[in-house]
Amino acid sequence: MTDFSHDTLGICYWNGTLGPFDIGIVGSGSALKVLVDMIYNEAFREFLPDMRLVAFSNAGRRSDIKAYCETCSPVYETHEEMLANHPEINLIIEITGDNAVSSRIRRSLPPHVSLLDHREVVFLCGLHDMALVKGNYMNNLDHQRTLLQSIIDEIREDILLLDKSGNIVDLNRIVWQRAGSTRKELLGKPCWQALRLRDGADFCNRLDPACPYHKTLQSERKEEALVTRINEDGLLQYYRLYAYPIFDIRGNMSHVMVMHRDITERTHREKYQQQRDKFAIIGEMSTYLAHEIRNPLFAVGGFANALLKSPGLGEKEREKVRIIVDETMRLDKMLANMMRFARPSQTAHGPADALAICRDTAELMSVGYGKRGYRFEVTDEGSLPPVHGDPDAIKQCVVNLIKNSIEAMPAGGAVSLDLRLEGGEVALRVGDEGVGMNEQEQDKVFSPFYSTKENGIGLGLAMIKKIIEEYGGSVSLTSKPGKGTTVTLFLQPVLDVPDSIETEGEHS
């Protein structure tokens, strides 16, 4: 009796207690091809014990065998002759289709030789067909799996499949390549050990509570979140995180797929458009404020100044009037700044000598701040082309940036002004070693009316950005808390400058 066993999964398998079968085939025909395929094809090894084809008999013409089998096994007239020459045979397979032949073989076989007659071979043929079907399905499945993996690997977003403990079950190529590891090395590790920013810096150093993975574990629904990170260069990055629940065949959530999408460029474009919309609104507001607020404000200020000169006021009353005068002046200055910010710039567009502007500005600021512990260092890479923009307006931008740096270093320090040609633009960097900015401050730093200063109105960096963009340039900011801030003005070069046009250096 054939010996079978069951493993812990309840799957029946051949346990190998019997030795390999040395087979003699009696007869020929179409079933022979099936048998030979099952004996020699490795795809059937998981279904059947080891088998070796030894000899044939009752085959009729040798050509009948060669039609299905190219083996060199010997062929005999009768099964008795075959057994006499090959005593190692322990299994006879009869495929003549003749019941009389089958009965005669069964009566004559020695005890150690088993028999499968043509009726039982039908089950082997069925097993053969099922194995072929399975092979086709497995090939298709492997093809689909390879295709799907290739598609996922080509996706630029980070994709990870996590178990319910946050450990990696699978991930796409871009994740393990950016992490500097192999896919195999990261399987089973916590997700935060694999995730990186685009420059290779760690995305996080623990399971971040802000990650939608945690919400999906609780809700069993798709969740998403917007997070910001500062890369190694201090540049603010925006990421959209998605988490999708994965359910098993019983409907239970077994895994969570997490995807990270870098939306930095898109976010900057959206913020740029939002700022343009804000500028339009501010323009309308400034017109209203100029007509409806400034006139009564002048009246209040005028009467307050008149009262201040009155000899009949006591010192306490005089102090209160001084406050009114100061506040009306402050409101008038705020209105002027708002209107100047909202209206298009009327200044000329160059050419301007950016290096001369930086040297003049550094020399000017050294007079007032040099003795208070501040140093102003100007560096450049050599010959630079003139740039588009009004020299005075660019100089004012640099002055405001230096003042911001000074305020970020109350105990003194170095302010660097560096100029070089980058990507066809003149990059003017103003950097400090001050307190720096966190992610939330960087996110709002160019927004009108946002300020970290106690008495600021939030138009400094927004105004600088507006002026430089009107000249065809752009502005970027990098910062790290405790390590300082650098603002870069990207200025458009003037490639052909007529000799008759004076440069900024000549103006100054």
Automatic annotation (TrEMBL):
Residue intervals passing through the bilayer: none
UniProt domain PAC: residue ranges: 221-275
Domain named PAS: residues: 144-189
Record bears the keyword Cell membrane: no
Gene3D superfamilies, per database record: 1.10.287.130, Histidine kinase-like ATPase, C-terminal domain, PAS domain
EC code: 2.7.13.3
Ranges of residues in domain Histidine kinase: 288-495
SMART domains for this protein: HATPase_c, HisKA
GO molecular function, one term: phosphorelay sensor kinase activity
Alphabetized UniProt keyword annotations: ATP-binding, Kinase, Nucleotide-binding, Phosphoprotein, Transferase, Two-component regulatory system
InterPro entries: HATPase_C_sf, HATPase_dom, His_kinase_dom, HisK_dim/P_dom, HisK_dim/P_sf, PAS, PAS-assoc_C, PAS-like_dom_sf
PROSITE patterns: HIS_KIN, PAC, PAS
Top-rank lineage group of the source organism: Bacteria
Class of the enzyme per the UniProt entry, highest EC level: transferase
Reaction(s) catalysed (UniProt annotation): ATP + protein L-histidine = ADP + protein N-phospho-L-histidine
Sections of the chain in a coiled coil: none
Alphabetized Pfam families for the sequence: HATPase_c, HisKA, PAS_9
Record bears the keyword Nucleotide-binding: yes
Full protein name: histidine kinase
Organism expressing this protein natively: Pseudodesulfovibrio cashew
